[in-house]
Amino acid sequence: MVSHLNERKKLDYGIDAPGIRMGMCLISIAGLTIIYLTILGRSGWLKGLQTVSFVLILLGTILTLYGTFMAGYMTYSSKIGKLKTRDFLLDGAGKYLKWEVVKQSLDIGCGKGLLLIGAAKRIRVGISIGIDIWNAKDQSNNNENATFHNAEIEGVSEKIKIQTADARQLPFENETIDLVMSHWVVHNIESENEQLKSLDEMYRVLKPGGVIVLADIQNVRKYKSHFEHLGAVTIDYNDGGFESKVMSILSGRTYVPQSVICVKPK
Ligand SMILES: C[S@@+](CC[C@H](N)C(=O)[O-])C[C@H]1O[C@@H](n2cnc3c(N)ncnc32)[C@H](O)[C@@H]1O
After folding, report:
1. Which of 96, 137, 132 lies closest to 145, judged by CA?
2. pLDDT at 7
3. Does any ligand 1 atom lie closer than 6 A to the CB of residue 130?
């Protein structure tokens, strides 16, 4: 029992965008420093400058609250929020897909295996494949070993396959995959053309009757339209609701978590 608990502790799906989270921590520290120096300065260089003191304390407070909230939210999303999203997405896919007949699922930009492992736990006889280019700025400590380690802890290591490959050039034949999944990956690809190329690849490898599940933090509505342009039928589009709207404002439209599920007609 104790060793089981220890193993659970080591399950780690990584911190996404670790550099940005660090930036948020630094904003918070900068805010605290401004408050501290202003309080110190009140009896010295800021003596009598009450308006300036007030503005500095206000600025420091805003920066501290903003940085702390954003860093906390990013940690929550990486550690808890995305596990809930995984269940939501795979439950959604399961409404249009029989897990018993899935021969191959594919997680594009699998990182430490969030959807790769989630699908492997549901698939009965098939295999769950994950591909990634292991870009460390997109997720902390992402590498094949870490992903395989998570799969072992989750008891699905025999049902997964991990490959190094780029989302824009998938090493799979046309129409061979039953379920294509991608979580928080496409925005990492630099130009819009290249992003759309990765969507084209997802659609190319998908079997007729197969399902695509895509979640990202930007442009999901545009990706939905692109899949429809390729011939897909959208079965669910989640605009992220209130949380997404608030985070869109707080992040200057850089973090708008949404998802889409579509089917390739037979
Ligand atoms: C934010 S992480 C998300 C990882 C995982 N899907 C999850 O939700 O935990 C983005 C991942 O996409 C990978 N990635 C970025 N560009 C890629 C590309 N062109 N092809 C394949 N993987 C890519 C990164 O290496 C990273 O592991």
Report:
1. 132
2. 46
3. no
